[in-house]
Amino acid sequence: MKAVLLVVLAIRSCIYYKYIEERIMRISVPRYIDTENTLRIESFYHITVAPRDIPWNFPLHNHENFLEISLIIDGRADFECEHKKYTLEAGDLVVKNAGVLHSEISSVAHCFEQYCLGISGINSPGLPSNTLIPSEISPVIHTKEAFDYLRAMTKYLFELSNDPKIKASEVTRQAVENEISVINMLIMNTVEFSEHQTHSELIENVLHHIDNHYGEPFSLDTLAKKFYVSSYHLAHRFKHETGQTVNQYVLKRRLGEAELQLVFGSDSIKEIAAHCGYNDLHYFYSVFKKHTGNTPNEIRSYYKTIKATTV
């Protein structure tokens, strides 16, 4: 029965592909094809949040060895990617290339639901490994007519991934290929260009430094000296260009990395805290709970309950 459903969905994807080709924009976006059978599911989560629950909140982080594709099923969320901000709504598809910094926080006024699929083995012509879209293209794609198909396909793929009888089977890989083929078509048909970088060279360099040294001790004075500006000038420019203080950005980067390691790593919470710049474990727990709404233990346990079993 599952094989029959897969064939039906594959046929529907071919029909939709023909429909998209008739409207396709001529733009240089490499199309990924899995010619070497390298696709691998690294993570797969189905996230749901009720209106009165603690909002979905994953601070700044990245995935170095795989890309992540999110399909927003319901609700709204604020999304930040490479220091650019977006608003996500139901029907949006989000492509987060490997190594790209991003964060999400859902609206407290709405229920929120999304699927997050992590995939490795993506090799698109002319792009870095595990990259689906060039950096100048917006990572947020409005699926429009394709939403119902993608929702059904993603739900089916999640169910396949939870079926122990077909663990790591060819049918699962084929289902991933079908989904990516539709995503390729959407990227080429609904492509939008991201806004040009609005940060000055100074602030872009400061952001880059924090992104790579978030676990080290930080103070505004030492950071200002490193970039040969006054503390006042740096604080003013950073706030003006990013909408947040240096300390707020450092906090987001540290908590995002901590949550990433809690979800995907196996280190102890004490080790994760130290790696992210917190040598006082009690203080780390306090800060983490205050800003994410959950304790580190709760985050680690939560992800175990919503993760597909075969990945």
What's this entry about, in short?
The chain has 311 residues and is an alpha+beta fold.
Outline the structure in words.
Helices cover 44% and strands 18% of the residues. Mean pLDDT is 84; it is low at 15-28. The protein has helices at residues 2-21, 147-161, 170-189, 201-213, 220-226, 231-242, 246-264, 269-275, 281-292, 296-306; strands spanning 40-49, 57-61, 67-74, 76-81, 84-89, 92-96, 102-106, 112-120, 140-142. The chain folds into two domains: 2-189, Jelly Rolls (Sandwich); 201-306, Arc Repressor Mutant, subunit A (Orthogonal Bundle), CATH 1.10.10. A hairpin with a 2-residue loop joins strand 4 and strand 5. The protein is globular and about 55 Å long. The chain contains ten helices and nine strands. It is of the alpha+beta class and 311 residues long. It has a five-stranded antiparallel beta sheet, covered by helices on one side. A four-stranded antiparallel beta sheet has the order 2-7-4-5.
